[in-house]
Design goal:
274 residues, alpha/beta, Spore Coat Polysaccharide Biosynthesis Protein SpsA, Chain A, 11 helices, 10 strands, 43% helix, globular
Length: 274
């Protein structure tokens, strides 16, 4: 199997127990990573600092400190730049990889070396991993993902494994409020990168009411609007699709209260398992 890196970012609000669960799910894979990079984005709790120090002392992870919090996009930019290997897997600090996640993704790259990104499905849980409430699948083929990207993001960010050289060719991760992943995939599209998603669930993702609150508000809408403008300027979408995308996002992100937005995400944008 090919060697690969895993990149994760932590910050002050991360729970040490959740981070430990996430790291253990990465380290206990059927195919273990060659390195795990954890970017510490600003000041973190003493408990989390002790946990990361313990893992680093055991040579399980490598940490990189950013003294002042700079946001996920900047943290991932640092992590990708520091990775030693061509293949890099993304991981969030409070989610759980399924045991064969990396093995399945490596098989895809072995079968088709022209691939730039391989993602997969997620299941979403509340409180405990056995309380799975929804599943999100993305289009699987390159052409279907490209079409879907004109409407919504075509990957579950936490599941992706990608080639470092292709990400750097597109300009690496950049600071883009809550859309650092979507913005990167669009730039990779413009570079002609080849995409793929696996239908299998690769990661169990922790969700809650606060997640839906973060998906709304003027700051989030402005980020989404700027992204739609970028796609329009680059001729990825036409004027009708641009107007439709902006209107839908305004209604969902500005007009709807959090509880209704959460209901829509679970019932319309996810496959409910309840």
């Amino acid at each position: 199997m090919m060697k690969f890196s895993v990149c994760m970012s932590v910050y002050k609000n991360d729970n040490a127990t959740d981070v430990q669960t996430a790291l253990d799910s990465v380290l206990q894979q059927s195919v273990a990573p060659s390195e795990v990079i954890v970017v510490i984005d600003g000041v973190i709790s003493e408990e989390l600092a002790r946990l990361l120090s313990k893992y680093e002392d055991e040579n399980k992870i490598r940490t990189i400190l950013i003294p002042k919090n700079r946001g996920l996009g900047n943290a991932l930019n640092v992590a990708v730049s520091a990775a030693q290997y061509e293949l890099i897997a993304r991981m969030d600090s409070d989610d759980i990889c399924l045991p064969s996640r990396f093995e399945k993704q490596l098989e895809c790259f072995a079968q088709d070396d022209s691939l730039s990104i391989v993602g997969g499905s997620i299941s979403e849980f509340i409180d405990t991993p056995d309380n799975i409430v929804a599943k999100r699948e993305c289009p699987q083929t390159h052409s279907d993902i490209y079409r879907f990207m004109k409407v919504r993001c075509g990957f579950n960010h936490v599941t992706v494994m990608f080639k470092k050289t292709e990400v750097l060719r597109a300009g690496n991760y950049q600071d883009y409020f809550w859309n650092e992943d979507y913005y990167l995939w669009i730039r990779m599209m413009l570079c002609g990168c080849k995409f793929c998603n696996i239908k299998d669930v690769l990661v169990n993702v922790r969700v809650g009411k606060e997640m839906y609150a973060r998906r709304g508000g003027w700051k989030y809408f402005h980020s989404e609007y700027a992204l739609q403008c970028f796609m329009f300027e680059k001729h990825i979408i036409g004027v009708i699709r641009f107007i439709m995308n902006v209107v839908i996002r305004f209604l969902v992100q500005i007009m709807l209260p959090d509880n209704i937005r959460g209901f829509m995400f679970q019932k319309m944008f996810r496959k409910s398992l309840k």
